[in-house]
Amino acid sequence: MIYKKYIKEIESDLENSINYLQKELDKIRTDRATPSLVEDIVVECFDQKLPLKQLAAISCPEERQIVIQPWNKDYVKSIVTAVKKANSELNPMPQSGLIRINLPPMTKEYRERLIKKISEIREEARVSIKRSREEAWNNIREAEENGEITEDDKFRGKDELQKVIDEYNAKVDKIADSKKEKIKS
């Protein structure tokens, strides 16, 4: 059926929505330190803008500590500046060629702000999924108007499309709820 083709066409967009959600949520701090909190911070050094992960090794030797080991000691000042600029909650401390970031315990207010941010990111992913759904539904309706499919096929396509959309919305909810639980605990 032609309607299946239109549903198949949006699946990569739907996967991209899930990947976007996951990547954005990885940047949100839980009580544990992770390299994803800083690895995509853009650092300006030597007239170039590069992600931190291309300039340094990033590790988490302790539960609430991130250690950044630049490939070149000349990067230290630029990295410290970029980390402070990107996230005011982080306090990078240079120490003999390394940069240590000790994460403070999360306050109730900070946890509430993070949960609100997760809800915003979840909504962005849902809007993206909704746009993909509209695109596929418009293509299915157009195919029916052009006589490529019957009216019955149009409604079968609508039902099948909704099942796929419901699956992806459930994935979004599961991922976001999981992150919220990590922050609450």
Question: What do these coordinates show?
Answer:
It is a single chain. The chain contains 4 helices and 6 strands. It has 2 domains: 2-26 and 107-184, Topoisomerase I, Chain A, domain 4; 35-102, Gyrase A, domain 2, CATH 3.30.1360.40. Helices cover 58% and strands 16% of the residues. The strands form 2 sheets. Strands 3-4-6-5 form a 4-stranded antiparallel beta sheet, covered by helices on one side. A two-stranded antiparallel sheet has the order 1-2. With 185 residues, the chain is of the alpha+beta class. It has helices at residues 2-26, 76-86, 108-145, 151-184; strands at 42-45, 48-51, 56-62, 65-70, 92-95, 98-102. The protein is elongated. A hairpin with a 2-residue loop joins strand 1 (42-45) and strand 2. The model has no long low-confidence stretch (mean pLDDT 89).
List strands and helices in order, with pairings.
Layout: H1 2-26, E1 42-45, E2 48-51, E3 56-62, E4 65-70, H2 76-86, E5 92-95, E6 98-102, H3 108-145, H4 151-184
Antiparallel strand pairs: 1-2, 3-4, 4-6, 5-6
Summarize the structure.
The protein is α+β, with helices and mostly antiparallel strands. It has helices spanning 2-26, 76-86, 108-145, 151-184; strands at residues 42-45, 48-51, 56-62, 65-70, 92-95, 98-102.
How would you name the oligomeric state of the polypeptide chains in this document? single chain
**What percentage of residues falls in helices of 4 or more residues?**
55-70%
Strand segment count: 6
Please, what is the average pLDDT? 89
Helix count, DSSP H or I runs of 4 or more residues: 4
Strand-residue fraction?
15-25%
Distance between the termini: 48 Å
Biggest sheet strand order reads 3-4-6-5
Order of helices and strands, N to C?
A: HEEEEHEEHH
Kindly report the name of the CATH homologous superfamily of the largest domain.
Ribosome-recycling factor
- Give the low-confidence spans: none
Largest sheet: 4 strands, antiparallel
CATH topology term of the largest domain: Topoisomerase I, Chain A, domain 4
Structural class: alpha+beta
Rg for CA atoms? 22 Å
3D shape: elongated
CATH class of the largest domain: Mainly Alpha
